[in-house]
Structure formats: C-alpha cells, structure tokens
Write a structure and sequence with these properties.
Blueprint: H1 2-10, H2 12-19, H3 25-42, H4 50-71, H5 81-87, H6 91-101, H7 116-136, H8 143-150, H9 153-166, H10 176-197, H11 208-226, H12 234-255, H13 261-265, E1 277-280, H14 285-288, H15 293-299, E2 306-308, E3 314-316, E4 320-325, E5 332-334, E6 337-339, E7 342-343, H16 350-365, E8 378-384, E9 391-394, E10 407-413, E11 416-422, E12 438-443, E13 448-451, H17 455-458, E14 459-463, E15 475-481, H18 498-504
Parallel strand pairs: 4-7
Antiparallel strand pairs: 1-13, 2-3, 4-8, 5-6, 8-15, 9-14, 10-13, 10-15, 11-12, 11-14
Helix pairs in contact: 1-2, 1-3, 2-3, 5-6, 5-7, 6-7, 6-9, 7-9, 7-10, 9-11, 10-11, 10-12, 11-12
Length: 505
C-alpha cells in the first residue's frame, strides 16, 4: 500500500508504469487522477497550466472590450508635428501645424522636450514644412490666391516659425554632412517663399514688425547653415549664394532698405567664382514687372518644329521657338535644324529689345558681375505653353566658335526648376549616367541665369516641368547670345535661305 500511496505523490509516471503490470490497474489509475486533480487545484497561480492562463487572458480581454464599448470611450491618437506637416494637403494646414504644434527653443515644458532627438525631430519637420510650402506656392499663375493666403501677419508668422524651427541647434548627434544638406534645402525653400510672399502691391498694408521678425529668422538660418560650410558640396555652395541674394533682395525691397547686397551679406559669402554659371537676380524688376507671357506671344512669331534626336529620330519639339537677331547675323543651328532669324530692333521687337538692354545694363552695373560686359545681339526664345512642356538635359552647341561663350537666360512667366549637372567624363558629351550631382533652384519671373567660359563644355542644363497642378501656366525663356565674327568674309551665324539673306542685307 505504501508503494501505491507514497510513490504516486512523488513519481506518478513511475507508479503508472508499475501498476500496469499489476492486477490493481483500475484502482491505481483512479488514485493517480485524484492526485493530479488535487495538485492542479492547489498550484500556485504562476504554475497553472498554459491553457488555463490563455483562457483567462481571453476572458479579461473580452470583458475590457465590452466595458469600453459600453462606456463609449475612445483613445486620442498622439500625432507629431512632423506627421501633421507631412499629411497636410493645403498651405493653411501646414501653417496651422507650425503655429499649434511646433516647439521652438524656449517653448519646451516637459523634460523630453529638451532632448537632442526631440529638437532634431522639430528641426526636420520644419525643413520639410518649408520645402512643401515652397512647392505648393511656387505657381505664379495663382498669385492672387497666394497673396490672399499670406497677406495677414498671422499666416506669415507661421512661415517665420518654420524658418526658426529649421535653425534649431539640437543636432549634436546628427551627421554634419546631412545637416549641411538639410540647411541648404531650408534656405532654397525660404528664398522661393519670400519671392511669393513679397511679390505684392506696394500699397500692401503689412506690419513692419513681422518683416523685422522675418529678417531675424532668415539671418539666424543663414548663420546656422554657414556653420557647416566645410561640408558643402559644390552644388550646395552655388545654392547658398543664390538663396542669400534672393533673401536679401526681397526683404530689402519690402522694407525699403537702401543697403547694398555686399553690405547685407557681410562675411556670409561663399565663394563661387570658379563655377562657370551663376543664378543671378539683377535689379530689373521695374522693367519686367509689366511684361507678360501674352505680351511676348503677341510680339514674337513662335512656332513648333521638328527635331532630330541623338538616335536620328525626327520628333515634334515640346516647346515653341523663335530666333531673333540684329541685321547681319545668320541662323541658329541645333538638333538638325537651322532657324532663320527674326530682325531684332526697337521697331520690330520693342519688348525683347527693352529686356535685352535692361539685362546688359544691369550686369554691367552689378558689383558682382562687372566682368560681364557683353552687348548681346541675338537671342533664342523658347515658349513652354504649359507644365507638361520641358527641356531635357543638353548643352548649347557651338559656344566659343559661332557664338560667344557668355550667355544669359531670362525667365518670364511661370516658375520652373532650372538645373545643372556636370558632364560624365569631364566634358565627354555622351549620355550622363544620372549619378552626377544636380544643382537646381526655382527661377521666378525676371530671374536670370548667367553661363560663361567653359560652361557648355563641361556642364549640362535642363528645365523641369510642373511641380503641381497649379504650376501649369506658360513660361518664356530668352537666351541672349552674341554672334562671333567667323572671318574669311563669312557672315556671323549660319547661312539661311535666299529670302533671309536678302532681308539680312
């Protein structure tokens, strides 16, 4: 009996084996079942069977769910300022997120607000907010809507908060090269926004204090970005130079300042003289302010033609073109065609002549471009009728042989992204592999791009299409050139048909 009672308590499996060989199998099995039931009922809660524990968890979950449903309780999701800005669909939603959810230095209240990672999140959200605003507000075709949205000081204050957020110094653990790149993105977007913000009537009633606050925020952003100048790429340096000029010119004009660009820029200049192109903003706004795309379309005989691609295929050109030139200059050849010139003078093309004269004078008098002393005598004019028309990567042909190496591109109408990239193989005019760094900015109405020296030998340029559905209006670019004397009695430019030769004489 002891064998039956004592051993099961310690080794029930052993007893089962022994009892199977005995004649008291039934009694033994009943005893084992009784012992196991007793042990299960007296186990510590942490030692209960897994199945029982799982069932109790399910029961508790069901009870909790039922309770919540009965009480009609819901949990409010926690949404960060970064998510609010990223999910925003309109300008107003981005500005509201900046005003309500963005924490700037001195506004922290909780202990984690002071953590470097938290400030970095606010900084990243601010940079993204500026980039998205610049993209949404880039269209010149909806200037009235932009003015309405940005006219009151509270809305401008939202943009100021984003600029301040992009200047946060909570990035001790961040890669310096990435921080420099983010800073350049913030500056480029800020410059684009200022063009939209301050492109308003002179009688616009705006609080001068908001202008001063904008100035201080921009100055701080420039200072922060310049701290990482040693990590700038070549493209970053060019964009920094352009953005600084745009910011200074727009703030100065809106506040009535008379200080020069160099006085305002001070030690913030990043040298870009070694690059053969420059995004410039000469002071010709008064000349171009009242010249529209429609005015030029009425004056210039644009037409669409066929081009020959690199593969030899003839295709319809996505833009309309016209070559204008002074008397004695022949045609312009590119992509398998020779364009006959339209006579450029005050009588036949008064608006084009006015723009040409203003550009020449502005570049001569600009302190940073005193060396660009060229009397341009011809121009290739390109009409991009809508946002789907663009210009692929290319170089301008025969620069330095038929045409002077220096040229200026003037943009009229809709805002577009204008980009450069270095040719693969250091001047090898083969298809670029697309891995070279791209340098781009938004060119607005009246902006200019200066290309000089060996720019077309070593760099490609292009014009991108629309950035959004509202960025769909027409744009005209005027590429001013100077024809070179070819010697040997040959006429400047390329030969044309007999009719054009008679007209040129």
């Amino acid at each position: 009996m002891n064998e039956v009672v004592v051993w099961p308590l310690l080794f029930p499996k052993y007893l089962y084996k022994r009892s199977s060989e005995s004649t008291t199998t039934t009694t033994t099995m009943r005893t084992i079942q009784t012992i196991q039931t007793t042990r299960n009922s007296t186990r510590h809660p942490f030692c209960r069977r897994k199945s029982s524990l799982t069932m109790k968890k399910k029961e508790r979950t069901m009870q909790t769910t039922a309770t919540l449903k009965n009480e009609n309780t819901t949990r409010t999701p926690v949404t960060t300022v970064g998510a609010l800005i990223q999910d925003a669909k309109t300008v107003e939603e981005i500005l509201r997120a900046a005003c309500d959810s963005l924490l700037l230095e001195g506004e922290e209240t909780l202990h984690f607000h002071f953590q470097d990672v938290h400030r970095q999140k606010n900084k990243s959200a601010s940079v993204n907010g500026l980039k998205r605003l610049a993209k949404m507000m880039c269209s010149s075709s909806s200037s009235y809507e932009k003015k309405t949205k940005t006219k009151n000081n509270e809305r401008i204050g939202g943009i100021v908060r984003l600029i301040k957020g992009a200047s946060l110094d909570g990035t001790k653990t961040t890669n310096r090269k990435k921080r420099a790149s983010d800073g350049i993105d913030a500056l480029r977007a800020t410059a684009s926004l200022l063009v939209s913000l301050f492109d308003e009537d002179e009688d616009d009633d705006r609080d001068t204090s908001i202008i001063e606050e904008m100035r201080n925020a921009c100055d701080e952003l420039v200072r922060r970005v310049r701290e990482d100048a040693e990590y700038f790429s070549d493209g970053d340096r060019i964009v920094f130079d352009w953005a600084l000029r745009v910011i200074e010119s727009n703030i100065a004009s809106s506040s009535g300042e008379t200080t020069t660009t160099s006085e305002r820029r001070g030690d913030a200049t990043i040298t870009v003289d070694e690059f053969p192109f420059r995004y410039v903003t000469p002071n010709i706004s008064n000349v171009l302010k009242n010249i529209t795309v429609e005015d030029l379309r009425k004056e210039v005989p644009f037409k669409a033609e066929k081009l020959i691609t690199r593969t030899g295929k003839r295709v319809d050109e996505r833009r309309e073109t016209c070559f204008v030139a002074e008397s004695g200059i022949g045609g312009l050849a590119y992509s398998g065609k020779i364009m006959e010139p339209t006579l450029l003078n005050e009588a036949s093309l008064p608006l084009v002549t006015t723009i040409r004269n203003a550009i020449v004078e502005a570049l001569k008098n600009d302190e940073d471009y005193a060396g660009c002393d060229i009397d341009f005598d011809c121009a290739l004019m390109n009409l991009y009728p809508d946002g789907s028309s663009a210009c692929a990567w290319h170089t301008d042909p025969e620069m330095g042989t038929v045409w002077d190496r220096d040229s200026v591109i003037v943009s009229i109408g809709e805002t577009r992204r204008f980009a450069f990239r270095k040719l693969a193989g250091g001047g090898d005019k083969t298809q670029n592999d697309g891995e070279e760094e791209q340098v781009w900015v938004r060119v607005h109405h009246g902006d200019c791009i200066l290309m000089r020296d060996d720019c077309n030998d070593n760099w490609e340029h292009c014009v991108f299409g629309k950035e959004n559905d509202s960025n769909n209006a027409a744009r005209i670019s005027l590429v001013f050139k100077k024809a070179l004397s070819r010697g040997g009695g040959r006429k400047k430019g390329h030969g044309t048909n007999s009719k054009e030769k008679k007209r040129a004489k």
